[in-house]
Prior knowledge:
Largest sheet: none
Distance between the termini: 78 Å
Low-confidence stretches: 18-23
Mean pLDDT: 83
CATH topology of the largest domain: Helicase, Ruva Protein, domain 3
Number of helices: 6
Helix content: 55-70%
Shape: elongated
CATH superfamily of the largest domain: Cytochrome C biogenesis protein
Amino acid sequence: xxxxTFIFLFCLGLSAPIVAFGIDSPDEMLKNxxxxxxxxxxxxxxxxxxxxNESIEDSSADLAKDLRKVVRQRIKGGDxxxxxxxxxxxxxxxxxxxxxxxxxxTALLWFMPVLGLVIGCVVAFVTLRKKNKIASTELSKEExxxxxxxxxx
Length: 153
């Protein structure tokens, strides 16, 4: 048991420097706490284009750092939250938003699996129905005679 505890603590110690990379540098933060809070709120809604499943606030990628700086510069310049977000969307498209707005494109993305499942069920139902219909078809007199002749040979 001591060995397992030692290995666990050793691995935890090795991973500690990795966690430290995600911390923002103090020079990146705005001096005004209200503006910094706004910047963090906006950054939490923007996708890191490198990591793709993290916000730019959580990512340590160089591009995420650059995007955080842009957000803070625009806030410092007097842009409101919507203007900053719109600037990012204009530049990078709706993909940059972690929660994109509901549009026809996003509706297709959400409903395609359901539509595929419905189409698959309909195809399976029609195929099984045809199979049962073919299996239940009786032979005519001529076909039965021909079959008995073939079986005698």
